[in-house]
Model the fold of this input.
Amino acid sequence: MAGLIEYECPCCGGRIEFDSGLQKLKCPYCDSVFDIETVQNYTADIQNTGQDEMNWDTQAGGEWQEGENSDMRVYTCQSCGGEIIADSTTGASKCPYCDNPVVMTGSFSGDLKPDYIIPFKLDKDAAKAALSKHLSGKRLLPKQFSSENHINEIKGVYVPVWLFDAEADANMVYRAEKRNSWSDSNYHYVETSYYSAVRAGKIAFELVPVDGSEKMDDDLMESIEPFDFKDAVDFRTAYLAGYLADRYDVSAEQSIERANSRIKKSTEAAFAGTVTGYSAVKLQSGSVRLNNGKAKYALYPVWILNTTWNGEKYTFAMNGQTGKFVGDLPVDMKAASMWFALITAIVTAVLYGLSFLLQ
Amino acid sequence: MLDFLICLGIGIIAALFIVGMMISKLKTVHKKQNAADYQKNDSFRLEVSRDSYLYKEVKKTPLQKK
Done:
């Protein structure tokens, strides 16, 4: 015997039943009435969206040739445990992430060889100028913070990133609303019509970066995006001369979740952008399936500055290719209170004065 | 007195807005939620686009009589 077919009410989600008097489906919970075909199509659309399938080939990076990394040394931070790499002529004395002393712990071996590197385009002077600009013109920045900052301790670091390429097949169902309102002599009416909008298709992403270093704050790294991959070249150790390189400690597999989240959000937004002519649109159900998902391993150039002020650590970063500079700054609460009181007093006085003039 | 309190209320809201803007200038580190910068040019292909009417609701509220 065939199983009982049940349909959910598109309005409240309750189980709807056939009303023999109306010859339509009626929800016993919210009294909404639907054509049979409407509910069948709606249910099929929701069921057809399926599940996300985010599969990746994470075979990124290459093998080092014999002798290729013999001049590279590994330095370990005694405080945060971070491992950085520098060539034998550059050396390293302080950790770029926590500013504590590092010690050389041996020659560099193992690990994957990066596929690509974007060489530094901007030098230390550009980073110093960008930091000065970042600190200027901010009324609520404590004055002592600017005067005490350690501008000379900016370090050029190549940060490991995993780059993800993929084509996405998307199948989305959006709930859309159209509102219309009018009034008569007794009532104000708001009529809301609900629609199901099905969208499906393809979209592709390339070189979505995910920070491969645990010590480098992910939000900080994402704040200095985008990097322009047109400047990327095949990796050679010669590019590391004069700079530090962070050793990756987050694998491509561990970075997939972040790449998936960003790709899914953009896919949903791209398809939602095609649902037009409505007062409101909300994603109801959807799935994203990735095809040909591949990862690459690259080093991206970043100028990093760490400083401590009033017992709190502040980290700044500049994109070594584009010059985009970011870093949260402390708030002078005394100045903020003063500005709050001043603006309140001025606006209140002006409005109160105007109210007298208009009377 | 009521006029003054209304003006003071607007003054406080304006001050909160302006000081909030000044504080937001100090916060430049934000997580990137999407991958819009990395969408491949001309890769977006819409293959299915179907809108279906489901139902409608009408809400009425009594007008206040003057």
Chain A touches chain B through 81 residues (CB under 8 Å). Chain A has three domains: 1-48, 72-166+201-266+291-328, 334-359.
